[in-house]
């Protein structure tokens, strides 16, 4: 059968799936700040300028994201 390609796809670990769900459940600004920092390697100042938010707000959003991820990791 031609549609069996999905069987060859690598399995995603449950922990990675839980982390992905956690990131997707974050509010949009926190998620964007976190992903800009972690995936795009932008500094806090660059993120603040890009999103027009001040530096303490960027720091708070990163801290919130990390707390959510640590909590999700501990629950697993």
Structure description:
By secondary structure, the chain is mainly α. It is built from four helices and no strands. Helix 1 runs antiparallel to helix 4 (55-75). The model has no long low-confidence stretch (mean pLDDT 89).
Unreliable stretches (pLDDT < 50, length at least 5) are none
In the CATH hierarchy, the architecture is Orthogonal Bundle
Q: What count of structural domains?
A: 1
Largest sheet: none
What is the approximate shape?
elongated
Superfamily (CATH H level) name:
Winged helix-like DNA-binding domain superfamily/Winged helix DNA-binding domain
Précis, in short:
This protein has 76 residues and is an all-alpha fold. 68% of the residues lie in helices and 0% in strands. The chain has one domain (13-75): Orthogonal Bundle (Arc Repressor Mutant, subunit A).
């Amino acid at each position: 059968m031609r549609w069996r390609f999905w069987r060859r796809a690598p399995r995603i670990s449950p922990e990675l799936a839980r982390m992905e769900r956690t990131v997707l459940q974050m509010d949009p600004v926190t998620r964007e700040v976190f992903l800009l920092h972690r995936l795009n390697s932008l500094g806090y100042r660059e993120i603040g300028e890009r999103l027009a938010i001040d530096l303490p707000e960027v720091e708070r959003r990163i801290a919130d994201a990390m707390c959510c991820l640590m909590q999700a990791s501990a629950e697993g």
